[in-house]
Design goal:
The radius of gyration is 22 Å and the shape is globular. Helix 5 packs antiparallel against helix 6, helix 10 runs antiparallel to helix 16 and helix 11 packs across helix 12. Strands 1-2 form a two-stranded antiparallel ribbon. Strand 1 and strand 2 form a beta hairpin. The C terminus is likely disordered. The relative contact order is 0.14. It is an all-alpha fold. Helix content is 76%, strand content 1%.
């Protein structure tokens, strides 16, 4: 719902300029760059994940409802409404990052806590993250179906966001109360808990963040490279997909392009849901140290293959094929969507399943999402104008192929248990 309604809400309901829209969407990568690693580091130092999950869920619910009621609070198309909407959207973005990273960590911790599964961490972590992707896909499809029930979703935005907020609070509460969490042992330096560096000030966290972002461990660097090229591919096409449909099939008709693109995204969500279900079954039965990286690369391949096919169908003929062909091809990229939401997190959980900085390292994955988003935001427009929008698909296919290559080398056997103090990786 955040991605579907934010831009139309600012442009149509609040009547803002394009510049305001750019400022709003810049909040995502900027806050995500700092929020996820910082929250991961803080949860490491405090030894708990659950408090962050519920705090983030409550903050998300409050900010999203405030966002949807901005005009009710400050008046229609008023400056106050724009300010309230912008601030609440930024808070919502930060709090969503808090929920996402700590839920992923809670899942990884739960998968690593079973003694009988310690020798199968690679499969266990992958299966756990696959189940998470399964529910993520189910939530995406459910959100689209709820949205389709309203003929004027922007006019009833507060209803949609209230429903979404209630669902978030209920599901997070179930996770917090149903999952057993063993508090991490709080490390000490010079007899003082490391968490005092977080509670007493931000310098400790900033120092750790700076070190890990600039000089990540080599094994972590391989995962970050796979993640980086994967998201370069996604951002190269997802942000212009509806425009591509409009220009390639409907002579630039934006409404028809939006409709066709929305249907393509629905197909993608359904395929992601089915793929996550099948991967859950398959990963629970596979063995072998190199099997999971191979499955990671294999499930990323449809992104490159389908983008190439979509490019070729439009580029090779004067008369494009029926639009449903392109929609189905994009729908098949749902396999890669499931893969993107599973294997990077599973790889970190496998290699660093009992490491004292796992939360920080899991949060660093978001850095490899933010940087591609910023690069594509700055460079994709000039590239599109220079060579045409269809070539963006081929660009995405090349990045996707690079992601497949890096993913083959992005997993390794679990690291040995850490020492009493911070270790050099």
């Amino acid at each position: 719902m955040e991605y579907s309604h934010t831009t139309p809400f600012f442009n149509t309901e609040l009547n803002t300029s394009t510049t305001v829209g750019i400022l709003v969407w810049c909040a995502g990568p900027i806050t995500g760059f700092f929020a996820q690693p910082a929250i991961g580091a803080m949860s490491d130092r405090l030894g708990r994940r659950k408090p962050f999950v519920m705090a983030g869920a409550v903050l998300t619910a409050a900010a999203s409802v405030t966002f949807s009621l901005a005009e009710t609070i400050a008046g229609e198309q008023s400056v106050g409404a724009v300010i309230i909407a912008m601030i609440s959207f930024w808070v919502m973005d930060i709090s969503i990052n808090i929920v996402m990273v700590t839920l992923r960590l809670l899942i990884s911790d739960a998968a690593a806590s079973s003694p009988e599964l310690q020798q199968q961490q690679q499969q266990t972590q992958a299966t756990a993250q696959t189940i998470a992707s399964l529910f993520q896909g189910a939530g995406q499809v459910t959100g689209m179906l709820i949205n389709s029930l309203f003929s004027d979703p922007l006019g009833r935005l507060w209803v949609l966001y209230t429903i979404a907020s209630c669902c978030l609070l209920v599901t997070c509460a179930v996770a917090v109360f149903a999952v057993h969490e063993t508090p991490h042992r709080i490390q000490t330096v010079g007899g003082k808990p490391l968490c005092s560096r977080v509670v007493g000030g931000a310098r400790g966290v900033i120092s750790v963040l700076w070190t890990e972002v600039c000089r990540p461990p080599f094994r972590m660097l391989r995962i970050l490279l796979a993640q980086f090229f994967t998201w370069l591919a996604w951002f190269s096409i997802t942000i212009i997909l509806t425009t591509w449909f409009a220009e390639s099939f409907f002579a630039g008709n934006g409404d028809k392009g939006d409709s066709a693109g929305s249907m393509a995204f629905l197909y993608q969500a359904v395929v992601q849901l089915v793929s996550s279900l099948l991967l859950t079954i398959c990963l629970a039965r596979i063995t072998g140290r190199r099997t999971v990286p191979f499955v990671w690369a294999l499930t990323l391949a449809p992104l490159s293959a389908c983008c190439t096919a979509m490019f070729a169908t439009v580029q090779a003929s004067r008369d494009p094929p029926p639009v449903w062909v392109a929609q189905l091809l994009w729908g098949l990229t749902g396999v890669a969507t499931a893969s993107t939401n599973i294997f990077p997190f599973a790889a970190v959980g496998n290699i660093y399943h009992d490491h004292h900085d796992k939360g920080l390292l899991m949060g660093l994955l978001n850095v490899s999402i933010v940087l591609p988003q910023l690069l594509d935001t700055l460079a994709l427009g000039p590239f599109q104008k220079a060579v045409g929008i269809n070539w963006c698909l081929l660009l995405a296919a090349c990045f996707g192929a690079g992601a497949c290559v890096f993913s083959l080398f992005a997993s390794a056997p679990a690291a040995p248990p850490p020492s009493n103090g911070p270790t050099k990786l």
